[in-house]
Amino acid sequence: MKTLNVSRKVLVTGVCAVAVAGAALVYGPDLFDDGPEPLPGPAGRAMTAVTAGAPAALPDLVALIGDRRTWLREHPGDEASWAVLGAAYTERGTRFAEAEDFPRAERALRKSLAVLPAKRGNVDAQLGLAALANARGDFARGRAWGERVRKEAPKRWAAYPVLIDAYKGLGDYQAAQKAMTALEGLHSGAAVLDRAAQMYRDRGWREDAGAAALEAAAYAGSPVQKAACLHRLGELAWERGEPAEAVAQYTAALRLAPAHGPALAGRARALGALGRTAEAFRDYRAALAATPLPEYALEAGELYEAEGLDGDAATQFETLRARATEAGAQGVNGELTLARFETDHGEPDEGVRRLKAEWARGHRSMEVADALAWALYRTGEAEEALPYAKRVTDEGRRSALFAYHRGEIERTLGEYGAARRHIGEALRINPYFSPLLAPKAKEALAALGDPPEGGPKDMEDARRAREAAAAAEAARAAEAARAANAAKAVTPAKPAKPAPARKPGGAARP
């Protein structure tokens, strides 16, 4: 196969959605101006399939990495190809949990900047570094690189997906929405529609999210991209509490991409909810083989624990620790998953420590705020936990887990009406949301009992009656205090007893 030549006018970036989506390479129309047109093949498909931000198939991605490395041995001054190589490593590292690819990506992107510095217009390498930072969970750095590119090239649409990921990781959802609006004004297609679906979901607009995801699947230009869109539909169905529909969407995705890790893990979760645990464990094993992310090991371990298989659960939790440690050595921030594990299965104090450190770093996403609220609750700090839980649910996302966590915190604080409302909401959103926590939610709701007859009106009347009774009691106490003080003021004082007379010489008379 001919070595693929790349023009210096090529446009490259990485687009990373937290935890599951990889970086994408974005190329301009002058792709092959400086060399012969490439022969059809895996490397060519990887170069062209992702023009609209779509993922490339793993074999094609591997071919592209090999092709660029071969080219660069003879053309080390081609900064665009270094940027291509760096972004390809980032995509492979993110989508397939190959954390060792991230240092390779950084070396390639830094080499691109050494050949053509950022101040001389090397936007491609800067976008690649932004995507790499997001993939590692360093959202402040991702934002810094992304905003630098936006300032230099505001019409470069590929900067906006990177910024959306960074803003969401930092909990700045207003900025993420503004970046989304800018993206929609500059570009269209399946990648943009998928982003829109995620934004709608975060705002609690489930019908809009479903419609955008469905449209994205219709516009998908490759089997891998269509599989990613079908996975999104499966996630939305799962969050609505429809595990059978979720299984159908995940299965459709896996027909197109049999080793799609997120779809395998999603189907395992939904199968567990349907009681098909043997199939669920099979899919978790396949997901961890394809994409060995620590969060998949945590999910699998919790399902094993719910089934009373504590030994298997412990094995999964050890896998989680090992994978998080390996990824951390490559610069990947796995604190959220580790903290969640510690909170529910290890040392809750350690979970609080990790999450407070994340919060101090500016990582204030809904996921971090929820995990911190729950960790504080687990350490007996419910009052400190409640503001974080409120912050999460007030963002709008319809999450059963978020609602349940808030409800349990409120129940501990004696706010029984609010607790009943939020725990009930969790079970209405998705009665299967966790193999360990959903049964506890049902028990908590039963313990809270039914609200007063008549619903919210009677509850409000009861609250007002309690407040009125307390006010009346306080008024009676104040009145009694005033009466006592007044009585003391008008009662005549007793005359003093005269001192006994004294005899001459000083002795008192008997």
From TrEMBL:
Instruction: Return the SMART domains for the record.
Output: TPR (SM00028)
User: From start to end residue, where is composition biased (Basic and acidic residues)?
Assistant: 455-467
Residue ranges of region Disordered? 447-510
Annotated keywords: Repeat, TPR repeat
**Which residues fall in a compositionally biased region of kind Low complexity?**
468-496
User: What is this protein's record name?
Assistant: Tetratricopeptide repeat protein
Species this chain originates from: Streptomyces solicathayae
Mark the TPR repeats by their residue spans. 86-119, 227-260
PROSITE patterns in UniProt = TPR
